[in-house]
Amino acid sequence: MNPLHLLDKVRIVLSHTSHPGNIGGAARAMKTMGLDSLYLVNPRFFPDKEAERRATGALDILHKAKVCDTLDEALSGTVLAAAVTARQRDLSHEVFDGRQGATKLLDLAQKDFVALVFGTEMSGLTTLEVSKCQIIIHIPANPEYSSLNLASAVQVMAYELRMACRDLLETPPASPTLTLHGGGMAATFDEIELLYAHLEQVAISSGFLDPQEPKRLMQRMRRLFARARLEKEEVNILRGILSACEKRM
């Protein structure tokens, strides 16, 4: 398979974008690098003439963009989501630079859909949004002025993804990396979110978690499982254990 086809498995997700021009600019950045799957989570203005004006030559991407009510909807069906953020985070997931992150995404794109998630222009991604992802991508920039325009950040990552595809074309792996390190099928975003909901429910029912003072237990659990890159069978085992615990309560 031509590695460039992997770009068809990459979703560009823009969350709560304020300025429609940035949506158009992002669409144009995607088109120049061969990406065409744009997801918009609650954009402030869309459709919009300014978005169309900025998307010169890439109106097809705008017209088929999927508008979602929630980030969960945009990530449904993915096996890896990367939060693109410049801010340091407490209880952070694994952090990669743009080049490393692009390679990680394409590795799992050989199996199923993956996503790059970008936040609002002013404040970026929220802590909750980052927790929905499994890795963090940081674009190295001038530390004295590291703020990238949203469309520019999309352009940088689109370029890195295309270059990662080129590297695969020039030096194909000995065998396709279609599975995770353990050899099993990667769990999808939806399956892992159901696991988190089940885990939280059991933690509350058992008295281990006080819903009035949850602290950061679930955030820590999300970080733990994000590092593990859970497989489908592993999720089923964990949920089976939780169900067995529920029966004994």
Automatic annotation (TrEMBL):
Coiled coil: none
Cross-referenced CDD domains: SpoU-like_TrmJ
Biological process per Gene Ontology, one example term: tRNA nucleoside ribose methylation
Domain tRNA/rRNA methyltransferase SpoU type intervals: 10-159
The UniProt record lists the keyword S-adenosyl-L-methionine: yes
Enzyme Commission number(s): 2.1.1.200
Endpoints of the signal sequence: none
Major localization class: cytoplasm
Keywords recorded for this protein, A-Z: Cytoplasm, Methyltransferase, S-adenosyl-L-methionine, Transferase, tRNA processing
Any one Gene Ontology molecular-function term assigned to this protein's record: tRNA (cytidine(32)-2'-O)-methyltransferase activity
Subcellular location: Cytoplasm
Pfam families: SpoU_methylase
GO CC list: cytosol
Catalysed reaction equations from the record: cytidine(32) in tRNA + S-adenosyl-L-methionine = 2'-O-methylcytidine(32) in tRNA + S-adenosyl-L-homocysteine + H(+); uridine(32) in tRNA + S-adenosyl-L-methionine = 2'-O-methyluridine(32) in tRNA + S-adenosyl-L-homocysteine + H(+)
Family: Belongs to the class IV-like SAM-binding methyltransferase superfamily. RNA methyltransferase TrmH family.
PANTHER family, alphabetized: TRNA (CYTIDINE_URIDINE-2'-O-)-METHYLTRANSFERASE TRMJ, TRNA/RRNA METHYLTRANSFERASE
Self-association and partners: Homodimer.
Function: Catalyzes the formation of 2'O-methylated cytidine (Cm32) or 2'O-methylated uridine (Um32) at position 32 in tRNA.
Identification of the protein by name: tRNA (cytidine/uridine-2'-O-)-methyltransferase TrmJ
UniProt source species: Nitrosospira multiformis (strain ATCC 25196 / NCIMB 11849 / C 71)
The organism's taxonomic lineage, starting at the top: Bacteria, Pseudomonadati, Pseudomonadota, Betaproteobacteria, Nitrosomonadales
